[in-house]
Amino acid sequence: MKGVSSVRREAKIYVSIGVMAAAIIVLFARLVQLQVVQQQEFGKESEKNSIKKIIETPARGLIIDRNGKIIVDNRPSYTLTITPFQFDKNLIDEVASLSGIDPEEIRNELADAKGTNRFNPIKIKRDIDFKTISYIEENRDRLKGVSYQVESLRFYPNKFKASHIFGYNAEISEKSLNESTENYYRQGDLVGTTGLEKFYEKSLRGEKGSRLILVDVNGREVGAYNDGNNDVKPVNGADLFTSIDSELQEYAEKLMGGRRGAVIAVDPRTGEILCLVSKPDYDLNAFIGSPDAKEINRMFNHPEKPLFNRVTQTRYPPGSTWKMMMALAAMASGKITPTTTISCPGSFTFGNRTFEDHGGYGSIPVVRAIEVSSNVFFYKLGLMLGIQDYHDYSAMFGFGSRTGIDLPNETKGLLPSQEYFDKVYGVNKWSQGLLVSLGIGQGELGVSPVQMVCYTAAICMNGMYIQPHLVRKIYNSSTGIETPVEVKKRQIDMSQKYFDAVKKGMYLVVNGSGTAKNIRNSDYVLAGKTGTAQNPNGNNHSWFVGYAPYDDPKIAVCVLGENAGWGNMFAAPIAAAIMVRYLSGNSADVFNENVKMEVND
Amino acid sequence: MDRKFFDRFDITLFLSVIGLIVIGIFAIYSATQSSVNNSGIYVKQLTFAIIGLVMVIGITYLPPRYISSLSYYAYGLALVLLLLVLVFGRTINGNKSWFYLAGFGIQPSEFAKVATVMAVSNFFYKGDEDNQKFSVTQLLTATGIVLLPAILIKLENDTGTTLVMLSFIIPMFFFAGVSPFLLFAVVTTVAAAVLAFINIYYFAVFLAFLILALYFFKKHWLLSAGVFVINVIAGYSVSFFYSKLQPYQQKRIMAVFDPASDPLGSGYNVIQSKVAIGSGGLFGKGFLQGSQTQLRFIPEQWTDFIYCMIGEEFGLLGAGVVILLFGIIIYRLLTNAYLSRNRYMMLACIGFASLFFFHMFINVGMTIGIAPVIGIPLPLVSNGVSSLMSFLLMVGIGMNTYRHKDIFLS
Prior knowledge:
The complex is a heterodimer. By secondary structure, chain A is an alpha+beta fold. Helix content of chain A is 33%, strand content 22%. Chain A contains 19 helices and 23 strands. In chain A, strands 2, 3, 4, 5, 10, 18 and 19 form a 7-stranded mixed sheet that branches. In chain A, strand 21 (527-535) and strand 22 (538-548) form a beta hairpin. Chain A is elongated, with a radius of gyration of 34 Å. Residues 1-6 and 596-601 of chain A have low confidence and may be disordered. In chain B, 71% of the residues lie in helices and 3% in strands. Chain B is globular, with a radius of gyration of 22 Å. Chain B is mostly helical. Chain B has 16 helices and 3 strands. A 3-stranded antiparallel sheet of chain B has the order 1-2-3, covered by helices on one side. Chains A and B meet through helix 1 and helix 2 of A and helix 7, helix 12, helix 13, helix 14 and helix 15 of B.
């Protein structure tokens, strides 16, 4: 076998290199044919052949009240868009007059979008009217790159506002867009910014879809790309089933009227929030569509801070509503028993300072002290307790920490401790006298109305402390899956007889000779405590915390009137009216502004 | 070892490989940046490229005998993995060739390519390549080494990789010293079948050339006549069997050779891919500016159709550079094979060069409409960790061959 079979390795390599070189020449020749000879032809084809990717924004989830009524709904709307790839900048003025936007603003939007995908449409203006849509349709050949998308916007079919519950959606800020790591949002997207809309953003927003549409050179839609096989259907957001009682919410908002303050009512057995009002409130509709920047700025800069949720975000001194806390702490720490009597003359002197009371009551036990709201009794308890017990027992009732309500930016309030005073005043540089004021809920103590309602609910439930919440369950309508919201519960470890004593006092406040006998009701046994908190910024804050019915609590409530004066004059009648309204199945209206009585809180 | 670190470091091969990887990562970024689900995958590719390049350097300095002695173990492991994937694997795009381990998709078939080349090299490593007499048993065993994993891969329904497995048999046998006439007879028989299927006139022209070639081999006239007859039978029988198939089966086979016959299926990709590359022109439309790429006309463009993104956004310049880099890599593997005094390394380099060549030619050819649509990746460029790592393994052994080119393995 001589001849070809004895080729040497070198020859084989030459054959191999030859085969490879030939193949590469073939490939290269074909590339030249496509990219040089036929370039114009293919270039035209690729232009003709452009497709538009349309992001389909899902409808946000709905918000539903405790009776199944939709309280936050969606409505369809049109959003004007510009696709930079096709858009002729000479058209900016025409589009500006069409949409009623400053041409500069459009230029800025386009400039902002530089560096992103030029084929993605940019949202220019939301909620444009049908006339504009028709104009775009009629002039489509000329207005290349100008189009519109259907988007759903919020719609509130209610007689109440609940602005601080729902919160608003706004265009995502550049900052959050950069900070977001999940690659979901694009410039111009709406995102929940406050309230439930923010807290449950991930559930409410759903999943975006996309549609690919073949368009010709004039931007006219020719059909779906690849028969829609590459399309992704959007998945609508999940619905929030809340515990809000719409009628009670409406009633509470009406009662608060134009005053400043807060109302929150919960079912003490479950922690479900029945109504939540923060006044002044604002109109959520102002944030829908393309909001008027001036109007929005006015809200943000308003001296009464309407955007602030006074139920969860502010801290106030609780005043006399704090006295149950002191009573419980003193009994549980063994400083007093339910029957211990303390002498309560009309004033109390500590060091060289005299603390006043609104009357002398003789030697009284703790139940009586709560009923008449004696200050001297609780000045003394403050001193007896000392800062350590004061802090520790109050912390058990959730003070100084967040309640975990499902609304964003909740305050922790301020519960002073040894460390706190050491830090503020210096070690050993503060007097025990601070405890005197703290005993009656004044001084360096800050609580939010939501903390107060949880505390009240825990007292009436004999120490069961439940995380307050607005949302009961999240319902995903596309999968049919219901997710109940998890709620933390804990039992505060204290003897039942202490709760009995405190509850007896709260009963007598309304039904004995106490500070709120003006709100006694013949149909329902109410219990509660008034508070009139001094504050350096003007008139006293008016407080009332209470629950009803006394022997089988179904509602606990906290009302705060900023600078509204005496607890029994402003807060108590509103709280009573809310409790009776709720217990009567939203029928009775016992509110009477003109109840007058002697003021001795 | 007293040799210096940079002595006999195949820098040309190494830099060409890095060049392709870098182009690949830019291409993957461009093809995925507007995608909601895949926009981060270039980072993964980059991470594994770095790990892989470190691995290449590591392999370069290994003593060659370590590599050859590992061959059968690697091959055995590959077979076990292929069997396991058949039983436990996950099906993606119709191929049951994936393992999922801790969130990573692993394709044993990619690794099997390398291991099989190593096993064949090890089988043939003894002897004088210029004057071999292989027994029929030897030839059948060597063929069996390739066919066994190839069949397992075919059972995973991965036709592309199965064809890849067959691509290196002829070149490796050729360099191992198997009679060129025998190989010629096999190659022509396959070619006859394919050409007769595509067009009967191609087949006629082919037979004319066959007669000419047989004359130059100067074999006994009976032997030559036998090869000719086998070729004719192969050609006719293919047409005969084809006519017996169901129409839908015929259509499926036709689409591989003529994409335009199935414009909504695989043909659609080729048409769009040609438009993408053609519209790129000399210098391309610019990075991230290709309408075909950015609008994603071609699904999963970051894998098998990555080359059309390069053609569209970087033009003839970019597309040409990629082919050129492949040319350099294959050329280096061939010269390293030529220079090596280690027969095992020589054969391995030939196998790897064949793999690079076959992948590149079929993949690029597919996107420019001159090769059938077979789903195989563009080496070092397409997204995919298993493919990237297995090609870097080949590069490592190629670099090792250069480093140790005059060490003789006995």
